[in-house]
Design goal:
This protein has 14 helices and ten strands. It is an alpha/beta fold. The chain has a six-stranded mixed β-sheet with strand order 5-10-9-6-7-8, sandwiched between helices. It has a two-stranded antiparallel ribbon with strand order 1-2. Strands 3-4 form a two-stranded antiparallel sheet. Helix 2 crosses helix 3. The longest helix is centred in the C-terminal third of the chain and has 15 residues. It is elongated.
Length: 362
Amino acid sequence: MIKSTKTQSYGGLSMVPSKSTTNKRTFKHLTEYDRGIIYVMHKHGKSLQAIADEIGCHKSTISRELKRGSVKQMKTDGTYHEVYFPDAGQRIYEENRKNCGAKLKLDTAIDFIQYVENKILEDKWSPDVAWGYAKRHNLFGDNMVCTKTIYNYIEQGLIAVKNIDLPMKMRLNTKTKRVRKNKRKLGLSIDERPMEALDRQEFGHWEIDTVIGKKNKNDHVLLTLTERKTRQEFIFRALGKTSEAINCVMEQLREKYTTNFDKIFKTITSDNGSEFADLPLIVKEVNTGIYYTHPYSSFERGTNERTNGLIRRFIPKGKAISSVSDKTIQYVQNWCNNLPRKILGYRTPEECFQEELLCLST
């Protein structure tokens, strides 16, 4: 025979006995309904523990709520007594919630915020680069906010920067997978590249690629080389996406660095594009190793691909490279090499590159 359970009714509210098996809530806020139960049970003289068991919280929570929502009322004899009202408790709770959370630091960090706005809008830096550079050089002391807070301010519209001003944030992956046919392989595979080139601890290992403007055989292309350790970037104009044009640029690079070429360029990693087919011939007289990635594996030249993305901010796809001035190309190269990088401890590639060249000369 199942034993019936008695329920208690207070002012029209049916409630289970105080010794219920309901699990107690932890770190939950009281609701308007909870405050209604507190009001009814307290009015009927129930203890704090009984009310707490009914709601599923600690009795101290009930005690604080009764103090918070109590209002002084005058009796007929002219004396005052305190009466708990659930709507008063709810109103005070909502007002307190408005004051919760971290306070905005715009007033104390206004100079830093204006600095970040300028770096993002004028110099095309990312919020993290602006923060890291200012932190490394102690430009604003403690009057700064972190990278996450900068992004929060952008989302809330509190500063002059918008999401559309952050190129990486607006990227969408809309490409669909395609079935690829086998592609030819050139020269030594990246699998044979020395391990020193993989861990980025040794200077002198480069990645190479071409950046095209219009899909026109008569248009110029950009030849880009990125050093894996320092992230130093070289950008050259080539008269076309042909092995002859690339060879011409590489010959000029060899002449520039003469006897130090094989120390600065220990290895160069390329994709399997036909324009790079003759790279081994260009460096056959020096000790520079030429290695080729697997077909359709641009991620194996990730450093170079990432920097090409930075270049696209200034020279977008579809813009004829032949229409881009040498001055602009030099400006983009300088911008890339003077952009502080988080991975370099917010130093610039140019700083790191010059340090490595100094080590070679000593």
